Amino acid sequence: MSSPKNVLIAEDSSVIQNLARKILEFQNFKITVVKNGEQVIQLLEKEPFDIVLLDINMPVMDGIECVKIIRETEATAKLPVVAITGNARNFTEDEYKEAGFNEVLMKPLNFDKLVKVVKDLTED
């Protein structure tokens, strides 16, 4: 059996953090949680992840700024990154993809879709 995939969740809402963590841990994913994009960049420099779930509106560094740095860094340029957003009206799905995201999940999160997207993007 393959080892669990490493999922990095960047989300400033502890409610969404905890729900996403529990649901993905139940699906046998290894979860690390941070509260802003700057912490994502720092962690990605230290350890490998299979996917990043990135809230768009976070303090310190938001998801758009963070995904641009991820895409510009050779080691993480191809890493799957999923936008988690409640501000669907500000950007279209195409604009998120142009910014560098592989997928977009709207809040309130559909947890079945969350699991499907994470599994689809982390399959070998």
TrEMBL record:
GO terms for molecular function: kinase activity. This is Histidine kinase. Keywords: Kinase, Phosphoprotein, Transferase, Two-component regulatory system. CDD domains: REC_hyHK_CKI1_RcsC-like (cd17546). Coiled coil: none annotated. PANTHER family: HYBRID SIGNAL TRANSDUCTION HISTIDINE KINASE J. InterPro entries: CheY-like_superfamily, Sig_transdc_resp-reg_receiver. The modification 4-aspartylphosphate is found at residue 55. GO terms for biological process: phosphorelay signal transduction system. Residues 6-122 form the Response regulatory domain.
